[in-house]
Amino acid sequence: MRKMKLMGIALCVLLIAPVFSGDKSKNLPFTQEDWFSDVTDEVGLEGVCAFRISIADVNGDDYPDLLIHRRGNERGLQSLYLNVPGDNLSDPYARKFIDFTEVSGITANRDGTADGRHSSLAIFADVDNDGDLDMFSGLHVHRPEDYEDVGDRNDLFLNDGSGHFTLTPDMTFHEDGILNTAAAVFLDYDLDGNIDLFIGNWWKNWKAGISFSDELYRGNGDGSFTKVTDSAGLQLEQPTYATTATDWNNDGYLDIFAGNYCQDPSLHWFNNGDGTFSEYQDTSNFGQYTHCSWGAMPRDFDNDGDIDLFEIIVHGEPTGLRSSVLINSDNVFTWNWGMVNRRPHGHWEYGDHYACWFDIENDGLSDLVLTDCAYGTSENQLIYILRQGSDHTLEDVTEDAGLGGVRAPHPVVNFDYDRDGDEDLIIGLYGQNDSIQVWRNNRGTSNNWITVKLEGAGIPGKSNTCAIGARVELTAGGVTYTREVSAGNGHFGPQAPLSLTFGLGQATYVDSIKVYWPNSDHTITELNNIPVNRFLVIREAPEKFIVVGTDDQSTTGAGNILLYGFDPSLPNPFVYRPIVVESFPGGTVQGLDIFDYERDGDFDFIALVRFETSPGSDNWKYELHFFKNEGCSFTKEAIDFSPPDVQGAWRSSLTDTTAADFNNDTYVDFVVSIPSGLSTLTNIYEFRNLNSQSTPFFDPIGSFSSPGSMNLRRMDAANFDVNNINADFMIVDYVSGGNFQGDIYLYSGNGDFTFTSSVAVTTEKSVHTIAAGHFDSDAWPDIIVGGDDDGDPGQYWYYRNTGTGSFLSPVEVFDLGPDEAGSDMPGAGVADAYDFDNDLKMDVVATASEVPLGSTTLYFIRRIGNAGGGSSVFNLYAIDIIDSLDYGYATSIAAPMTTRFGGSKAVSIPGVHSIFNLRYNLVELYICVNKEACSNMIYNIEIFPQAQQPRWDSVEAIEAPEGWSFEKIGNGVRFYTETSPLLTHQRVKFTFRVKAERISWYMRIHATDRAHQSMGMKVSTRPWLYYFYLM
């Protein structure tokens, strides 16, 4: 399997700490009442009836909602209840359920009448990969030969994200007629990123003993399905009464378990990994006995790293069998009857129907709830709370838990309805008007816990958005817990929430979390040292990301910081739905920059936010915030910053931030440009990186004013001048159309937060934005400037750096509309340089002006060639954002600085590792290529004294590897080859002598391909040494 270590900015993870604790956490001895409390009336469900129960968050608020079916074969017996804040406003955990059925659309039928629909089960997953949970509605008629057909069939409802459902146009399920479906489970059996569906069907004619076949439907990712039962090898008729999908042998593919009702051994369908299945129940020993199955409930209950099963058996005693734990050992199940010790129920036949695993006390040992409601009187129909002991046996503690009086329990589902960190129970009572009981868990918060929610990317090559089929391995307190994300396991799909709650006992932190994603590459995300008592959201990591700031013209009236991930492996980069990192009501995010604050491998960022001092005043103030990446969360800290207010909305928008190491101490600082009060000047404010673990993180060391009256707008930093190693920055002077001269100013750094300003480029255009990057084969950053020419549609101009701080006339001019996607872009918005497609050439990512985010507003300007080659250097691509929400207009953008040296932005070569040894003044540089994309590409290695920090006096090549030569170029050296480029996993040594007062723990080298096209800058490190003095 390929391992994907989560590093850099918190792309995949958002950590949310509970705000309240109150008296929910207790460490006192427990009395009987302490285990559970009956809160049915408190949550608004007193008198509500339910024969089947499914739990899902249908409106995306992270609280579990409730879908119930009442008993009967007529239409209109389903209801949807939303989980909303309770009536006790002083209790942060107070919740209640309100009937949402009438407006939800779940009762719609195909004939368009108001009669409702007949359905018997519901399970939920995101079948169209749009980020919300859709619903499969299953039809069970019990005895088909006696059923009066009203026209309803198995069907699919699509969710609009707010809990409103509509029937899908796809009619695949109707082609099969009435199937008498008794169970259904969602899965992604072929790991294509789309949700598939397996349904278990019962008798076709019970009197004649004729069964239906179960069916497998392959999801197309758009809400439609294709039946693939035959081609998958699943054509076998049996009366199936329960289904389960679980990865029984840890191979990354979900197998299917179909429970047979009393006729033959239940089926274990082994997933071959090629889209087909094989019968495997004899090999796995799942089919050792013929019994009446009501479901195999998966769980690694003994914490040994593989999935075990609890097999629910009805009619237990007459057959000599009863519900049992199936222990998985080396992929063979052992039926262990003695592990379940429950009190006798006074009747000769058990009628076990439902079971669910959950951890009552959050002690890390999985407990079990089992319902028995079929035979005898209600006095014989009991619920069993089975608590796991240290020897993994399940002991009956029902009376101690306070549920000994529950009678005729039928469905039971675990869910944390109040999000207090422990799992509660909802039970349907059979024969007592099928009423509901909700039991709140009071015992779980005596221990520590963490709840994990996974979000897949939902695109080809990645996981389905629900991450169904993902496996999570969590290690805490010396124990590793293994759990899976599933949807619909059991009899009639008693679906539990997709989030996973782990009890941690007294462990005070989580050592590690590994997520095994259900995708074709079997990638893994790993997190370490995570705080406990948290709700953790982990997103499947995109390979690339940017951060975009917006104004307050969003639907919420807030400016947002949005984290967009995208996948560069597709023909065009695919943009994920954004993470909203932060919202500022009434604010506009005017400036962003991303950098590694403390050189720990994680990306942090700063944000400049503008607010109107009072509504309608047209007077504006600014706030500056630092978002520090803590590994799996951001800490937001306000930076001490109080510039004078600025009058005028347009003028107050002429602000930006940019970051670089402006004082050559190897840590990244930043500067901010703000209009100077009521004057026509612009002030540049400087902030020094303190490399601190706590606030203040930056020291505001001073400010200086622009050299004259300018409308300074966007800026970007780099080491523009070949003759020094100091960080510079450039800033554009925004002008109105062609009536004024639009200049680009270079602030050349002196290495001590002082700068010398000069006009670097005169554009004679209205310039809006600037992005600096290595757009040609040399090592010196060029610029791409965006704007318009006298009000014409937006354009970008590419200016090539001569290496001395001066720039050639535009090498290329291209319009932003229409582009290759046929879209017309009204004007250049904001932009930043980034190698987004991993082709080792620097590109640009940009937004449109005057177009709100939520439509096609991200533009990738892809570098496809080299400047001066006579062919096109750039192509323009408009990228669809899969989100219909209106986040406002893009006002700032930032791409990660992969590396920064002396303020110079360089793209690091992905998949190339290097390190050096230092023997007095002799350097042994070792380079190893560990990514196939970089193999057979590196033909040149260049090392320049002026690129180092501190600057070296000189460098002299001593020895080249076999097949390589070396030469002096300027005051640097070049190692080159014509026949022996670096290959994957080949470790190559380059030796050279350095004359310098000191050498730091890293050095900067420049790698190019055969055509001498820049592949990027690479840091070679000596982690154990900071500075080595040579003189």
Task: Walk me through what this model shows.
With 1031 residues, the protein is mainly beta. Among the domains are: 39-91 and 126-451, 7 Propeller (Methylamine Dehydrogenase, Chain H); 711-836, no CATH class; 912-1029, Immunoglobulin-like, CATH 2.60.40.10. Helices cover 2% and strands 45% of the residues. Strands 41, 42, 43, 44, 64 and 67 form a six-stranded antiparallel beta sheet that branches. It is elongated. The protein starts with a strand and ends with a strand. Mean pLDDT is 83; it is low at 1-32, 818-825, 898-908 and 1022-1031.
Q: Structural class, please?
A: mainly beta
CATH architecture of the domain at 39-91 and 126-451: 7 Propeller
Mean pLDDT over the residues: 83
Low-confidence stretches: 1-32, 818-825, 898-908, 1022-1031
Strand content: over 45%
SS field, number of helical segments: 5
Shape: elongated
Rg estimate, integer Å: 32 Å
* Helix proportion: under 10%
CATH topology value of the domain at 39-91 and 126-451: Methylamine Dehydrogenase, Chain H
Q: Whole-Å distance between the termini?
A: 49 Å
According to DSSP, the number of beta strands is 80
